[in-house]
Amino acid sequence: MSLTLPTEDTIAAIASAIAAGSGGIAVIRISGNKAQEAVQQIVNLPGKQRWESHKILYGHIVNTKSQQNIDEVLILNMEGPRSFTGENIVEIHCHGGLVNVQRVLAQVLEHPQVRRALPGEFSQRAVLNGKLNITQAEAINDLICARSEKAADLAIAGLEGNISLEINSFRDQLLNLLSEIEARIDFEENLSPLDPKKLIKDIINLKDDLQKLISASKQGALAHNGIKVAIIGQPNVGKSSLLNSLLKRQKAIVTDLPGTTRDVIESEIILEGMPITLIDTAGVRETNDKIEKIGIARSQQAIALADIIILVFDLNLGWTSLDENLLKQIPPKTPRIIVGNKSDLIFSKNNNMADIYISTVNGEGNNNLLEQLVNISGAQNLNSLEFSLNERQLDLVKEASNSLKEVEKAAANDLPWDFWTIDLRRAIYSLGELTGEEISETILDRIFSKFCIGK
Description:
Blueprint: E1 10-14, E2 25-31, H1 35-40, E3 43-44, E4 55-62, E5 69-78, E6 89-95, H2 98-108, E7 114-116, H3 121-128, H4 134-144, H5 149-159, H6 162-187, H7 196-225, E8 227-233, H8 239-247, E9 265-271, E10 274-280, H9 290-305, E11 308-314, H10 321-328, E12 336-341, E13 356-357, H11 366-377, H12 391-412, H13 417-435, H14 441-448
Parallel strand pairs: 1-7, 8-10, 8-11, 11-12, 12-13
Antiparallel strand pairs: 1-2, 2-6, 3-4, 4-5, 5-6, 9-10
Helix pairs in contact: 4-5, 6-7, 6-13, 7-12, 12-13
């Protein structure tokens, strides 16, 4: 999307999630000067209903060519600036379903001055019209995409302005330091000299605060993105049974025949606010079965990409050379949990490598396994987070922190004040780009192009 597009255009899009056969109600949003006109020409309102701002109207959407009713709807009229975008907005609340919603939208788009909204265009207009700042707009997208309650809580904190308040505080402090230095450069003879030691101490403290924010946001990313945990092992050791046991439902097919799982099967659980994708893989063994070979290749790919590996082996067979070979396939830096299954049967604790003993028959050891997953992933730290930065914001905070490190180097090398100001300005600009104080058309386009249509 380009900001060179005329923002006086009236735009329309489906603003709610829709799917065939689900969703009783859908919302179509129209924003712009022609919003009310576009809806008035396709709706019949019984009685003497008046188009007043922030009032709900009842009527039927009409096919303008056949004059037949398409749907029974409620219409919400919101005149600017008291609307999400700051413009005139009309929302049509119609019945859900793919076909019906598209038919209603098609009638709206019959108006010659109404076009389809581009991804994120409603939110972009809200920012341009001062209804939201850039971090609040991004928080809306994070809220929509939240995969856990903690991710939703962090998004709400951003929507309430907590991120911009925190970053603006850092930026204001840096601006004060920069103004002090530049004043000495321009009017040194008229002002008392600065104490470089105190100044660099303040800068280091700010850099350390930014580093804490970076560390916290890396944890916060787990709440949004989650982690992938691959369950691997030889055929028939209980990988699929473990997946079903952790999910508490029958997701994967389980039989006594080796090689039942021919492909990777993914399911998600939430632990301490973190989405964890469990990946059941095909048992790794030598085989001539072409389909099973494909499944094994995908298992090996899952091993390479997983954040954590659960390696399952059969306690009755003990730890074998085949298990050892599979262990060697795990990347050295990938955390792994070695799980001995079938603890409900008689087995020897000699010659096995189990970190945890489980039984997929009675669920024994599941809590210990989940607790270890929480500890390895760091999910237990999520509860203390008040807000978190997204990837774009995190990169900009890192840039600001790196700029302050350069100021440290300038101070350590006794360089003139001018060298300090170069990197201070860079840090201030990075934080300003984060909050929208320093933002270009290109950056805005890039941010909102990642939003879904209708938001």
